[in-house]
Amino acid sequence: MKKEKTDDELVHLRRKIGLLPAVCFIIGTVVGSGIFIAPKGVLVNSGSVGLSLLVWALCGVLSMFGGLCYAELGTSFTKSGGQYTYLLETLGPLPAFLRLWVDVLFFKPSSDAYVSLGFGRYVVEPFFAPCAAPKELITVVSILAFTFVVAVNCWSVNMTSRTQVALTFIKIFALVLIIVPGVIALVKGKTEHLQNGFEVDSITLERLPLAFYNGLFAYSGWANLNFVTEEVINPNRNIPLAIIFSMVTVTVFYVLVNVAYYTMMSPAELLMSDAVAVTFANRALQGLALVIPVLVALSCLGGLNGSFFGSTRMLFVGAREGQWPPIFSMIHVRRHIPLPAILLQYPLVVLMIITGEIYELVTFGSFAGWFFYSLTTLGMLIHRYRFPHHPRPFKVPLAIGLSFTVVCFFIVGLSMYSDPWNTGKSCVLTLTGVPVYFLTVYRFQLPNKLKSIFNYYSRQLQILLEVVQQEIQTY
């Protein structure tokens, strides 16, 4: 008689992420390097201090609206995979595959490489100031940082979530360290840079979408928890709570941090700085000026850890749905993590760190990202109309869903006018997935010889990595 396996022995994703780790995964991913770098981009494209603060607040509100839409989607569709899953369920396999295609091969590796290099710069440059730091050393440190994140994700979900919680508290401390001196200076009457904040002459409406892109880049990560729905404890409760609490907290912190920046720096000084937080520390925290680069570096590491954790689950679900090779839908027999999906990202990111050709991908990756956000929430509205009786434990008000979708399409449309070159390249890069979809997914046919070779190496890789298909359904 074959003995039945107990639940502990069955191979499947485990629900190990409670409310606190869920909040930390969102805050820890959102608060990366953006708030320490993006204020310059928001100010230069908005044209005035007052409008830049308004952009930061509106970006927070818009991100909250998006988060609430994703809370409905995350409780309506219980699969992991986030945006990929929602596009698949509402608009069909082709939009879902295109999102998977550009995310796995281009935008996620470039984004992770960008954040890794941010970590490397903040760690290395203080040791060489005022001279330029060696690029080779920054590259090595960046690769080591990303290797650490991959190692943590390969160890266990518990280790990943504990690391994220610790790094999130560190980055909150960094924000508080900036806010407190700014508030004290504000109370003492240091408001000269905030007076006459709305200078109408300097406002350029055609560049305003780029200001929103910079602000929204700093808020990106609010959808991160939806990638790991199958690993969240009580997702119907914890996903909406985590999104609401996280985005309110981040919005308040971001606005206060920017107010603190303007108490110590004039707009011209802020525009001249490539590392706004470091310039602020040199002014307001002279005794702790060397601490800020370390805290910013750890903040980058937390954002990298959260982003990487989520993106590997999208690849895992895509393979499970038959839109990627089956080996990437397999789980380690003891650690219960999608190990092949984790390992695929490593060489892609390392390659981009070494070549350094990532900045254009990050720039026009914003267009594709927000275009797919628009499609996802549009799909939510269409699905709500077509299937009104589908279970929705959390239902966002229709006005919020419509507002978010319309604003996203409006920003995407304006960006095509403001920056047609990068948005055009983004469209082309996304559309390269169309022939790949029809050749490899829609009508996948391989000669028998190639099929046997592919299956042989897949089996060998499965044995080497000790991975199998999940044995029970977790959604």
From TrEMBL:
Gene Ontology terms for molecular function: L-amino acid transmembrane transporter activity
Protein location: Membrane
Membrane topology category: Multi-pass membrane protein
Keywords noted in UniProt: Membrane, Transmembrane, Transmembrane helix
Pfam families documented for this protein: AA_permease_2
One Gene Ontology CC term in the entry: membrane
Main location: membrane
Transmembrane segments: 20-38, 50-71, 83-102, 137-157, 169-187, 207-227, 239-264, 284-304, 337-355, 361-382, 394-417, 423-442
InterPro entries: AA/rel_permease1 (IPR002293), AminoAcid_Transporter (IPR050598)
Protein name per UniProt: Cystine/glutamate transporter
